[in-house]
Amino acid sequence: MLRILLEQDEPGVCATAAVIALSLLSVQCARRCYETYCLQVFAKSSKMNLSHYLVGIGHYFACIVAAVGQAPLFCGRQNREKIIWTDSRTILLSVPCILTFLWACYEQYQTNIIFANLRRDKKTGKVVTEDHKIPNGRLFERVSSPHRMCEIILYTVLFILIPTKTFFCIYLWVLSNQIQTAIQAHEWYKKSFKDYPVNRAAIFPALL
């Protein structure tokens, strides 16, 4: 199935890079699952479009296939004894990539805490409103959508670890999607709140 999907007979990355990328992706998915069920406050009237739901499933499926399907022993027929399990590039970049990913993951988590607290009572923690308010603190002081900025950072790290044409397509999808939605959110904030901070960018500080 992987050969059919990717049409690839030779590995595009070493085994270590694939393992690191999949481990980081697992951390991200586990955290997002926790936030969805235990942290975030969704409006009762809010609904997800079916197409968005299906695209989300397809996205994570593609990420896993792109990482696993281009790793040694998963594409084509290879001699196990001749496989290079790691390389100098991965050894050099692994620690900076892991630290950057975990930082962006943490900041994204803190952003979602700020969003949730806008609808909760500060003392009791109970949900008291479903209204939208201006978020403040941490990366919100620089951009309107720090969670989307962090998402781009996360996938930049994954693309550095899995620098293949297939994963580059996934990266472009994330980049375009997050930038577009961030700009739309930024414009909505400015139209909805007259006192919205003028110094905030949409997604990249001092750039966009």
Q: Supply the helix-strand structural class.
A: mainly alpha
Secondary structure: number of strands = 0
Task: Assign a percent range to the helix content.
Answer: 55-70%
Question: What amount of the residues lies in strands?
Answer: under 5%
- Counting H and I runs of at least 4 residues, what is the number of helices? 6
Radius of gyration: 20 Å
Largest sheet: none
The SSE order reads: HHHHHH
Word description of this protein:
- The protein has one domain (2-192).
- The chain is elongated.
- The chain contains six helices and no strands.
- Helix content is 59%, strand content 0%.
SSE inventory with pairings:
Elements: H1 2-6, H2 15-39, H3 50-68, H4 88-117, H5 146-161, H6 165-192
Highlighted features:
208 residues, mainly alpha, 6 helices, 0% strand
Quick summary:
With 208 residues, this protein is mainly α. The protein is built from six helices and no strands.
